[in-house]
Amino acid sequence: MRLRSTILLTVALALAGCATPSQIPPVEVAPEAPYTLDAGDKLRVTVFGQDGLTNTYAVNASGKIAMPLIGSVEARGRTTESLARAIAAKLRQGYVREPHVAVEVETYRPFFVLGEVTAAGQYAYVNGMTVETAVAIAGGFSPRAYKTYAEVSRVVDGQLVRTSVPLTYPVRPGDTINVIERWL
């Protein structure tokens, strides 16, 4: 069972001029969608009873993994369960009679922190991260940082979405967090 939660976002802070976060009403956003795979993820694919197929595979820049016998399988945009079904379907086409496949993420793609932090850059993702923990990994806020919210860029349904979020907002692999400079 997937844990679903409602997340409150603050929006339009950058456009609000001198408004403070407390003056801008939060906007309710739908629960988080399940994690989808993309380039940079490393997957552990287990084909039960087939040790030659069980291995770690990287999702390449074109969003695919290359497996023995069946060749390339599209991983981008799929959940691990959906990818396991696709691999099993390809294996069923003359290679393995009744394939049982499990896929799990071994290493998530990195996230990025930019702006007013001590050490901007690319960092390894850890489950359960928030914007605040991501900033801590990047060495903390610089003296000029706005310490109430940050901007997060994320690809959603193939579209890049950028929004201002509180520091408690969950980070996902591939996100870009931009800590903005305060004016006063």
From TrEMBL:
The keyword Ubl conjugation does not apply. This is Uncharacterized protein. Residues 111-158 form the Soluble ligand binding domain. Residues 1-24 form the signal peptide. Residues 31-105 form the Polysaccharide export protein N-terminal domain. It comes from the Bacteria. Coiled coil: none annotated. The keyword Transmembrane does not apply. Keywords: Signal. Pfam families: Poly_export, SLBB. GO terms for molecular function: polysaccharide transmembrane transporter activity. InterPro entries: Poly_export, Poly_export_N, Soluble_ligand-bd.
